Amino acid sequence: AQSVTQPDIHITVSEGASLELRCNYSYGATPYLFWYVQSPGQGLQLLLKYFSGDTLVQGIKGFEAEFKRSQSSFNLRKPSVHWSDAAEYFCAVGLNQGGKLIFGQGTELSVKP
Amino acid sequence: DGGITQSPKYLFRKEGQNVTLSCEQNLNHDAMYWYRQDPGQGLRLIYYSQIVNDFQKGDIAEGYSVSREKKESFPLTVTSAQKNPTAFYLCASSSRYGYTFGSGTRLTIV
């Protein structure tokens, strides 16, 4: 069955520290991969997406993600976290850009001063 | 500006009552989706529609119903058969270029 796993439910990092959020997927084919961010009580905003080509993808707000086919992973990274990055982050997979998505459970990020 | 409008933002209903959540988009997207969000469970697909007058069940359709009479509108009805309806509901639409999400409706059954 298709699934997405985000192993870390909650992560706390210090402002200015680096960040890596993990995402593993199980999918029959090479999926389209997405990272979304959600502020409390809001909808989801797309950070970045991967379809093909360069496996290191740059997104908005200084985020990047790396697709590793051998590990079925699509981890999200940021070199230096800002307090405004505190939010919930979702990894998602789909068959294409516009079809239905399967979401991970989400990782809540807290940033301490 | 193009986008998705979900209304209301907060909704309270008594147990046993049906309630309808509104979702309207002016993006000219063919596909629309309803997701339910619960803490620690991510987003789970309730229903989706790829064209007008057609829709399919998602992973957790029991206790919910939808209609798609117009391209712009995809209302979700939470029926009294839904055992635990208190949740945050997100509507989305998509084209071949990607997804757009609404800002959500928080439904609380009192």
Mind sketching the topology for me?
The complex is a heterodimer of chains A (113) and B (110).
Chain A: E1 3-5, E2 10-14, E3 19-21, E4 24-26, E5 32-38, E6 44-50, E7 56-58, E8 64-68, E9 73-78, E10 87-94, E11 101-103, E12 107-112
Parallel strand pairs in A: 2-12
Antiparallel strand pairs in A: 1-4, 3-9, 5-6, 5-10, 7-8, 8-9, 10-11, 10-12
Chain B: E1 4-7, E2 10-13, E3 19-25, E4 31-37, E5 43-51, E6 54-57, E7 64-66, E8 76-78, E9 87-95, E10 98-101, E11 105-109
Parallel strand pairs in B: 2-11
Antiparallel strand pairs in B: 1-3, 3-8, 4-5, 4-9, 5-6, 7-8, 9-10, 9-11
Describe this structure in words.
The complex is a heterodimer of chains A (about 110) and B (about 110). Chain A has about 110 residues and is mainly β. Chain A contains no helices and twelve strands. In chain A, the strands form three sheets. In chain A, strands 2, 5, 6, 10, 11 and 12 form a six-stranded mixed β-sheet that branches. In chain A, strand 7 and strand 8 form a beta hairpin. Chain A is globular, with a radius of gyration of 13 Å. Chain B has about 110 residues and is mainly beta. In chain B, about 0% of the residues lie in helices and about 55% in strands. Chain B contains no helices and eleven strands. In chain B, the strands form two sheets. In chain B, strands 2, 4, 5, 6, 9, 10 and 11 form a seven-stranded mixed β-sheet that branches. A four-stranded antiparallel β-sheet of chain B has the order 1-3-8-7, with no helix packed on it. Chains A and B meet through strand 6 and strand 11 of A and strand 4, strand 5, strand 9 and strand 10 of B.
Low-confidence runs of at least 5 consecutive residues of chain A: none
Count of individual helical segments of chain A = 0
| pLDDT averaged residue by residue of chain B | 93
Q: If helices are DSSP runs of H or I spanning 4 or more residues, what is the number of helices of chain B? A: 0
Helix/sheet category of chain A: mainly beta
Oligomer: heterodimer
Q: What percent of residues of chain B are in strands? A: over 45%
Residues in helix, % of chain B: under 10%
| Cα-atom radius of gyration of chain B | 13 Å
Q: Report how far the terminal alpha carbons of chain A are from each other.
A: 41 Å
Distance between the termini of chain B: 36 Å
Largest sheet of chain A: 6 strands, mixed
Helix content of chain A: under 10%
**Taking Cα atoms only, what radius of gyration of chain A do you get, to the nearest Å?**
13 Å
Secondary-structure class of chain B: mainly beta
Largest interface by Cβ-Cβ < 8 Å = A-B, 25 and 28 residues
* Total beta strands of chain B: 11
Order of helices and strands of chain A: EEEEEEEEEEEE
- Name the helix and strand elements of chain B from N-terminus to C-terminus, one letter apiece: EEEEEEEEEEE
